[in-house]
Amino acid sequence: MLRVWLASASARRQQMITELFPNLVCEALIGIDETAGEVEVEEQVLEICKKKADAIKNLDEFDLIIVSDTMLADPDVDKVALGKPKDEVEAAMMLHRLSGRRHRVWSSTGIYFSGAWIFYTDSSIVEFQQLSDEDLVELVLNGSWKGKAGGYDLAGEMSEFASLIDGSQSTVLGIAESAMKSIEEISKEFS
Prior knowledge:
The protein is of the alpha/beta class. Helix content is 31%, strand content 25%.
């Protein structure tokens, strides 16, 4: 049986990987600098994903290690990333900014397998309905924004108000689509 480590605190990522590897160890990396240079969001998300991979020192303890990062591109300025809101005010501002609009979500995922890292970066497009003031308040007060890039979870409370227009749900939920396909192939190989 493969020894698998998902180096993430994301419940959505854990859910996707546990379906493939029930013996999964899910433990987030702590103290990673999640800032990136002034480059396109696609490059920022990959840079942070690689920082997470570089922080892992005990590579020989696992057969498969997965790191990932997800960012939203600002709907107006492609180089500006919307990260995770720090508080309710920031969550409300992000959701208001995304309301009634489309935006691109980027996920970069690193897979350590057979002694080497491979990185995958994909994007998807999500469209929000116009959020009423009541919906916006409810989404902020229920805490569904916590720990989520852009302040929302497409498979959670936001599913009522957002639609996947292009790309893959796995990319929006935190694992690049191409990486998810590779992880599924590894799972089939060892099941």
